[in-house]
Specification:
Blueprint (H helix, E strand, L loop, with lengths): L8 E6 L8 H4 L3 E7 L7 H9 L10 E6 L5 H20 L12 H20 L7
Antiparallel strand pairs: 1-2, 2-3
Length: about 130
């Protein structure tokens, strides 16, 4: 698990959107987190993986922008933004194992064909009855 130093991301307090009454217009409780991927201390391999993500929150300059406004307090939104940043970076750091294609077994092929035969017989019985 990677931990990103506080000096590598920038936190800015902004006004939150949505409902909240008078308080929403007075208090800057939402947080904008900006993390410059290219200027960070992460490995070059991880930087390439992060920039290569198809994520709308990553700008063309390679800056990850997160907006946290789920909670009413600024402190809770800061924690949420930092937690989400770590989740994104750690998810990109994990490599999924290569999947190798396998063949269906002989028994599974037989069961599939048997099921198709039974289904075909059921459908054949639904046809019109010929009267002699």
């Amino acid at each position: 698990m990677l931990i990103i130093p506080e000096t590598e991301y920038e936190l800015t307090a902004i006004r939150a959107q949505g409902a909240g009454g008078q308080n929403v217009n007075k208090v800057s409780s939402a947080i904008h987190l900006r993390f410059d991927i290219t200027a960070s201390s992460l490995s070059d391999w991880l930087k390439e993986r992060l920039i290569g993500l198809k994520d709308n929150r990553i700008t063309e300059e390679g800056v990850l922008v997160l907006k946290a406004q789920q909670y009413r307090t600024q402190e809770a939104n800061k924690k949420d933004a930092i937690k989400r940043l770590h989740e994104i970076v750690n998810a990109a750091n994990q490599v999924k194992p290569t999947r190798y294609a396998t063949r269906p077994s002989y028994g599974s092929k037989q069961r599939r064909l048997e099921g198709k035969t039974i289904r075909g017989q059921v459908k054949q019985l639904r046809g019109k009855i010929a009267h002699d």
